[in-house]
Amino acid sequence: MKTERISVNLIEENEYNPNEMDENHYLKLVQNIKKKGFRKPLEVRKNGERYTIVDGAHRFRACKELGYTEVDCIVDEIDVTEAMVDTLNANIHGSHNPYKEALMFKQIHDRYTLQDIEKLTVFNQGELKDKLDLLGLPANVQKQIEDMQEKEQREAPIVLTFIVKETDKQVIMDALDLFEESDKNKALLSMCKSVLEKQVKSDGTE
Hints:
extended, two-stranded antiparallel ribbon, 7 strands, alpha/beta
């Protein structure tokens, strides 16, 4: 397939992609592209004078954050329903928004039978029916499911890396030991909160 170099100003994300990436994995993606360069082209489709992403939304965001003005793209001559099928197949891993995923399946099902979708994707008919059934749940239940997933993503652990001299390492460890926390992660959080609280009190007395 032919690869084209396209301005980031002409590319937009689709509205139906259910794939989500937590902050930790996204930061790793940014760092990887920063170190090794943008190696895997985006998959896009022509949409008037612009291009809509089929696969590679997070890589696109990372490139824009890193200051890329153009990115390599593979332009597929497909319509939006075919693009949805490709998006599903390209994002079988990772975290998905279940409601957005169900809406996408419904739109695909408007054209294709469940049997056809099973052939076009990695999902069997039982899985497809379960996902479509989500849309039949009361609105408050759908909202609860979305809220639960958002909560899980907010509380997912991330990795923060600090570079210090070997001679300063013990100073940090000694400071953390001042807090009544056996877990160094919690001790670091307590130390940061303590500093912020002191700063707020200091600002209030000025």
